[in-house]
Amino acid sequence: MREPIDPTGIQWLRVSPKLVLLRLLREGLGTVLVMAIFAIPLLFQAIGWWPGFPIWLAWLLLLAAFAVRIWRLLLVPRQVRAIGFAERDDDLLIRRGLFFQRVLVVPYGRMQYVDVGVGPLERALGLATLKLHTASPGTNALIEGLPTEEAARLREQLSALGESKLAGL
Questions:
Q1: Cβ(161)–Cβ(103) under 8 Å?
Q2: I need a labelling partner for 136 at 20 to 30 A (CA). Which of 8, 66, 114, 130 fits?
Q3: How far apart are CA 169 and CA 154, in angstroms?
Q4: Residues in a beta bridge with 116
Q5: Four-way CATH pick for 85-167: 2.30.29, 1.10.3720, 1.10.238, 1.10.10
Q6: Domain boundaries of the chain, sorted by first residue
């Protein structure tokens, strides 16, 4: 489906569906941590360290935090489907965002270097993250969830295109 801010005539390439699992694992670990933190008032109440704290408020905080974390977990598959990239003659387009959509255009001639990173969970799933570095520190040009072979191919291709476009300036 074409979004209102998408350029016309673009065929978006998608990231690996394994990114859903990676993000669910990360969010799940985050949920456990958040639930542990929000359970502290209940624990303190139970052992008598915080007798004046209203028990209903402790439960309300815990349930509210749980609801927010579940909402975040439910959004993960749709967020991953919203990520895409497209290689054009002079630039690379990166799109992301479900509620707050963003299409980033990175001209090949502005790329300083291309970085491919792999963490332990990514390595286990055969995924990598490609990051494009430009002179602008505000550029957040990264593509998360690429299969490692695709990330390596893109790194080499984008580096070569960046050098050739930079030489033409």
A1: no
A2: 8
A3: 22
A4: 130
A5: 2.30.29
A6: 18-79, 85-167
pTM of the model: 0.84
Please report the DSSP string for 72-134 in residue order. Answer: HHHHHHHHHHT-EEEE-SSEEEEEE-SSS-EEEEEEGGGEEEEEEE--HHHHHHTEEEEEEEE
Torsion of CA 57, 59, 61, 65, to 10 degrees: -170
| Contact of 130 with 113, CB cutoff 8 Å | no
pLDDT digits (tens, 9 = 90+) for 30-81: 999 999 999 999 899 889 898 888 889 989 999 999 999 999 999 999 999 9
Whole-angstrom distance between the N-terminal and C-terminal Cα of the chain? 36
Distance CA 78, CA 113 (A): 30
The CB-side HSE value for 100 (13 A sphere, CA atoms) comes to 0
Phi, psi dihedral angles at 47 (to 5 degrees): -95, 5
**Predicted confidence (pLDDT) per residue in 91-148, tens digit:** 999 999 988 999 999 998 888 889 999 999 999 999 999 999 887 777 778 999 999 9
